[in-house]
Amino acid sequence: MKRKPFVAGNWKMHNDLGAARELMGGLRGNLPKPLNVDVAVCTPFTLLYPMGKEIDGTDIKLGAQNCHFEPKGAFTGEISAQMLAAAGCTYVIIGHSERRHVFGETGDMLRKKVVAAQECGLHVIYCIGELLEEREANRTEQVVESQLQEALSPDLRTDLLTLAYEPVWAIGTGKTATPDQAQAVHAFVRAKLSGFFGQETAQQLRIQYGGSVKPGNAKTLFECPDVDGGLVGGACLVAEDFVAIISAAQESA
Ligand code: PGA
Q1: Secondary structure letter of residue 229 according to DSSP
Q2: DSSP, residue by residue, 80-149
């Protein structure tokens, strides 16, 4: 049996308060009922409190896009996992390709972030994925395996963990991995997860696909046996599109 799908919207650095409220208004009333998909919106830090109010009483959960690994201290410009939990977050994205490749986050930092987030009760969406040149050099499996190894360990809480496979060449580019390409990497990742957590737990862990997920391609991706929903960037900024993607996940379950 497939796992319950999980669709998270990664707002990145988009939306002011007015646009965010409008977007949430368009989501709230239009989700499938009953909802058999876990749904989260990962907003910029400054929108967490007001969006927490917007989702009150709904099935939508709140997430952040990053956190620091220390609980507090002289870290100008950073936000701790504790602060996110206090702001009402259920989820936090760790290791997004933009954090790795634009902001230079290292495996060591990411491992500490995953641990810190889980210690605060946050559910981690841990992102992995290869660059185009790595795929072309047939190094995809090697890259995602090392990204798993650098941040995961058997003592992590698997009830607070989701993986997101996001090929970097597909993020924000309009190029999507084909269902076959996605399924192949997801199956590989799941096999590696059993090395960390055992086979039974690996079967229960959800692995989202991310990278130009749109209403038109969501269903065929989500129908792959090892794809358990998506991490959605651009398309989550349009309520109608995000609802359509959530509905596709619901239909694929
Ligand atoms: P995209 O972004 O859907 O715009 O490709 C996905 C992501 O970065 O998580």
Answers
A1: -
A2: BHHHHHHTT-SEEEES-HHHHHTS---HHHHHHHHHHHHHTTPEEEEEE---HHHHHTT-HHHHHHHHHH
- Amino acid code (one letter) for 137: A
Q: Look up 166 and say whether it is catalytic.
A: yes
Residue 78 a catalytic site member: no
Q: Each residue's pLDDT tens digit in the chain (253 positions)? A: 789 999 999 999 999 999 999 999 999 999 999 999 999 999 999 999 999 999 999 999 999 999 999 999 999 999 999 999 999 999 999 999 999 999 999 999 999 999 999 999 999 999 999 999 999 999 999 999 999 999 999 999 999 999 999 999 999 998 899 999 999 999 999 999 999 999 999 999 999 999 999 999 999 999 999 999 999 999 999 999 999 999 999 999 8
Using an 8 Å Cβ cutoff, are 186 and 226 in contact?
yes
> Tokens 């230079």, residue?
104
Tell me, what amino acid is at 168? V
Q: Answer yes or no: are the C-beta atoms of 116 and 80 closer than 8 Å.
A: yes
**What span, in angstroms and rounded, lies between the C-alpha atoms of 106 and 164?**
17
**Which domains does the chain possess?**
6-252 (3.20.20.70)
CA–centroid distance, 101 to ligand 1, in Å, is 14
Would you say the CB of residue 211 lies under 6 angstroms from ligand 1?
yes
> Residue 83 has which token pair?
């602060």
